[in-house]
Amino acid sequence: METVKPLFIVDVHLGKLARNLRLLGFDIVYSNAFTQAELIALALEQNRILLSRYTGFAKYPAVVSFIIQSEDPTEQLKQVVQHFHLTSKLNPFSRCMVCNGMVQSVQKENIQGQLLSNTSKYYNEFWQCATCKRIYWNGPHYNRMLALVEKVKQWSYS
Ligand SMILES: [Zn+2]
Questions:
Q1: By the number of CB atoms within 10 A of the CB, which of 2, 41, 42, 141 ranks highest?
Q2: Distance 29 CA to ligand 1 centre (A)
Q3: pTM here?
Q4: What would the pLDDT profile of 11-65 be if each residue is shown by its tens digit?
Q5: Would you kindly state where each structural domain of the chain is located, as residue ranges?
């Protein structure tokens, strides 16, 4: 059977889960302003699995929904990664955590004017979102994200 990377749409109260799944490289539709009707319509239109803490979506049999059990963002991520067997499909840092766009390497001279002086002084490698133009670099936040990615890789064995 052909393995297709699952596409997800994430309910309004699960912003941290949405960002973390994007960090791992998954295609995530998320907005904190979606109504239930919009969530259902987008899930159906785009063939996405709806991740929610709300059990009420089960009454729409056409929608593939999955109930997130924990209130803790790390536990939420673990539940999704383990249930959908995502550890073999990780593509960390390929996708923008803010807008879901694809992130590409960018030359420092092309974005120099947008950097804070300390960032410009201490870092030389940068990536930019093709969609929202947000700039990423290997700062302290990167190390925290890398630690999370390493943790996720271990979950396939637990
Ligand atoms: Zn972006």
A1: 42
A2: 12
A3: 0.92
A4: 999 999 999 999 999 999 999 999 999 999 999 999 999 999 999 999 998 999 9
A5: 8-91+152-157
